[in-house]
Design goal:
By secondary structure, this protein is an alpha+beta fold. It folds into 3 domains: about 140 residues, Nucleic acid-binding proteins (OB fold (Dihydrolipoamide Acetyltransferase, E2P)), CATH 2.40.50.140; about 260 residues, 2-Layer Sandwich (BirA Bifunctional Protein, domain 2); about 45 residues, no CATH class. About 35% of the residues lie in helices and about 25% in strands. It is built from 15 helices and 20 strands. The longest helix is centred in the middle third of the chain and has 23 residues. It starts with a helix and ends in a 32-residue tail after the last helix. The relative contact order is 0.11.
C-alpha cells in the first residue's frame, strides 16, 4: 500500500529511533500500575499522610497511548491513556536528560504507545501526575489519531475502521463494554438456573429453525453443499431428545437478507430451551432475565431509549396478536383465509405489501407496519396463526393458532418463543406445508428436515423455548439507533481500492 505524506513522516521518525539504537516496536513492556491503580495509590498515601516531600516514595511504571503532548519550555506535559483511564506525565529536561529531552522526545507523536517510570505528585494546578525519570517508546503509530481525539464523526468511517472509532470515541468504547456486561449477565442468569451452555454447528447440511434465506457454501472434501446456520433451534432441541433438560447457546447466526437499522446478515442470538416448560413459564423467565440484565447495567428497572423511559419491572402486559392487529387496522385476519383477500384488506388499511405475498407474510407485515411501532413499554404479543409458526405447538382450545409469544420493547421485537412442537407427525406435516409456501414464492420458508423429525420420533419432552436477539437487546439498553452501532465490525460494501481511507487523523500537537 502507498503511504500518505503524514504516514511517511511518522515512518521516518521510527527509522530515526532505530538509528539512535531505540526499537520503535520493542518486544517487552514493563508496567507496574494501571493509570487507575496509580491514582488510587497516590490518593491513599495522600490521605494517610505518607507522602515523601509531596511525592510517593514508590517508583512506578505506567504504559499507554499518548493522547496529549505539549512543550512548555523545559517541561513536556503529556497525557497517556490505558484501558483504565488517563494520567498526566510531567517530563522535565533536567530529570530525563538533555539528549532524551531534545533529541528523542521530538520523535514522539500523538497516538504512540509509551512507557514512563517515575513517582507520583500533585502539580500546582492540582492534577495528579507522574514525574517521569524515563520515557520509552513501545509502539510508534504511523497513523495520526482521528481529529485530535475529539471524536471520529464520519459515520461510514466509524463502521469501516472501528479501531479508529474506538480509540477516538469514549462513548463507543462504553457501548461495547456494556455489551460485554449484558452477555455476562445473561450467562450468569442462566447458569444459576441450571442451564447448560452448549455449542452447535455453524456449518449445517440443512438449515432450519427460522424463516430466512441462508448463505451457501461448498465443502470440497465431502463434495456437499453446506449452509451457514440461520438459527440453532433444531440442534438444541435434538439435545433435549438426547436427555439434557436445560440448554442454551449464544451463537452467531447468518441470514442472507437486507441490511437496515434492525437487521444484519451476521448477528448474535441467545436461544435457551427447558424441558417440561411451556410458553407461559418462558414468559416469566424472559421477564426475569431482562429485568436482571437491566439491573446489572443500570442498577434498577428502568432505562431510556430514544427519549422514552422504559420500565421492565415484571409482570409485563400480554396481548394476542389477533387483538393487536385488529385494534390497529380493523382487520380480523381469521375472516380472510385467502391470501389475495387478506392482501386487499391490508392495502385498504394502508399497508405496503407486494403482490404475490403469501398469507403468513401478510399477517407478519400487518404486525410490522401497524402494531410494532407503538409497543414502547415491554409487552408480550401471544398466540400466533399456525401458518406463521411451523415449530410451535397448537393451542388446545384453538388449533388454528399456536402457543407462541414475542417480547416487544421500545417499538421493536427482541425475541421469539414457543411451546415447542414435539409431535413428529405434526412437525412433518408443517414442513410439508412450508414447502407449499416455497413453491408459491416464499424463499424464506423452511425446508423439510427429516433428521429432525426422526429425532422427535425418539421423543422430546414437553418443552418451552426462547430466542432473544443479543444485538437488538444491546441496542435498546445502550440507546443506539441502529444495529451497526452495537456490532463491532458490521458487514459493509467493499470500497474500491482507490477509496480506502488511511491516516485520517491530524498530526497537530
Amino acid at each position: 500500500m502507498e503511504l500518505s505524506d503524514l504516514q511517511e513522516i511518522r515512518r521516518a521518525k521510527a527509522e530515526a529511533l532505530r538509528d539512535r539504537g531505540i526499537a520503535p516496536y520493542p518486544t517487552r513492556a514493563e508496567r507496574t500500575h494501571t493509570t487507575k491503580a496509580a491514582l488510587e495509590l497516590f490518593t491513599s498515601e495522600e490521605e494517610a499522610g505518607t507522602l515523601h516531600d509531596s511525592h510517593t516514595g514508590e517508583t512506578i511504571t505506567l504504559a499507554g497511548r499518548i493522547v496529549s503532548f505539549r512543550h512548555m519550555g523545559k517541561t513536556v506535559f503529556a497525557h497517556i491513556r490505558d484501558g483504565f483511564g488517563e494520567l498526566q506525565l510531567y517530563i522535565r529536561k533536567d530529570v530525563v536528560g538533555e539528549a532524551a529531552y531534545t533529541d528523542i522526545l521530538k520523535l514522539f507523536d500523538l497516538g504512540d504507545f509509551v512507557q514512563a517510570t517515575g513517582d507520583l505528585f500533585r502539580t500546582k494546578m492540582g492534577e495528579i501526575s507522574l514525574r517521569a525519570r524515563s520515557v520509552t517508546m513501545l509502539t510508534k503509530a504511523l497513523n495520526a489519531p482521528p481529529e485530535k481525539w475529539h471524536g471520529l464523526q464520519d459515520v461510514e468511517l466509524r463502521y469501516r475502521q472501528r479501531y479508529a472509532d474506538l480509540l477516538a470515541n469514549a462513548e463507543t468504547r462504553k457501548v461495547f463494554a456494556t455489551r460485554s456486561r449484558i452477555v455476562s449477565a445473561i450467562r450468569h442468569f442462566l447458569d444459576d438456573r441450571g442451564y447448560l451452555e452448549v455449542e452447535t454447528p455453524v456449518l449445517q447440511p440443512l438449515y432450519g429453525g427460522a424463516a430466512a434465506r441462508p448463505f451457501t457454501t461448498h465443502h470440497n472434501t465431502l463434495d456437499q453443499t453446506f449452509y451457514l446456520r440461520i438459527a440453532d433451534e433444531l440442534y438444541l432441541k435434538r439435545l433435549l431428545v438426547g436427555g439434557f433438560e436445560r440448554v442454551y447457546e449464544i451463537s452467531k447466526d447468518f441470514r442472507n437478507e437486507g441490511i437496515d437499522r434492525n437487521h444484519s446478515p451476521e448477528f448474535t442470538m441467545l436461544e435457551f430451551y427447558q424441558a417440561y416448560g411451556d410458553y407461559e413459564q418462558m414468559m416469566e423467565i424472559v421477564e426475569q432475565l431482562i429485568s436482571a440484565v437491566v439491573k446489572e447495567v443500570y442498577g434498577g428497572s428502568t432505562f431510556v431509549y430514544q427519549g422514552n423511559e422504559i420500565d421492565v419491572t415484571p409482570p409485563w402486559s400480554r396481548k394476542t396478536l389477533w387483538d393487536a392487529i385488529r385494534e390497529r387496522t380493523g382487520i380480523d385476519y381469521t375472516e380472510h383465509p385467502d391470501a389475495d383477500d387478506l392482501l386487499a384488506a391490508a392495502r385498504k388499511a394502508g399497508a405496503d405489501i407486494e403482490t404475490g405475498t403469501v398469507w403468513p407474510r401478510i399477517v407478519d407485515e400487518l404486525l410490522k407496519q401497524f402494531v410494532r411501532p407503538h409497543l414502547l413499554q415491554p409487552i408480550f404479543l401471544i398466540d400466533y396463526p399456525l401458518e406463521l409458526s411451523p415449530l410451535a405447538k397448537r393451542k388446545p382450545d384453538d388449533p388454528t393458532h399456536v402457543e407462541r409469544f414475542q417480547p416487544y420493547i421500545g417499538g421493536g421485537e427482541v425475541g421469539n418463543a414457543f411451546t415447542e412442537l414435539n409431535d413428529p407427525m405434526d412437525q412433518l406435516q408443517r414442513f410439508i406445508e412450508q414447502q407449499k409456501d416455497r413453491e408459491a414464492g416464499d424463499e424464506e420458508a423452511m425446508p423439510i428436515d427429516e433428521d429432525f423429525v426422526n429425532a422427535l420420533m425418539y421423543g422430546m419432552p414437553p418443552t418451552g423455548g426462547v430466542g432473544i436477539g443479543i444485538d437488538r437487546l444491546v441496542m435498546l439498553l445502550t440507546d443506539q439507533a441502529t444495529l451497526r452501532d452495537v456490532i463491532l465490525f458490521p458487514a459493509m460494501r467493499r470500497l474500491p481500492a482507490s477509496s480506502t481511507e488511511a491516516g485520517s487523523g491530524d498530526d497537530d500537537q
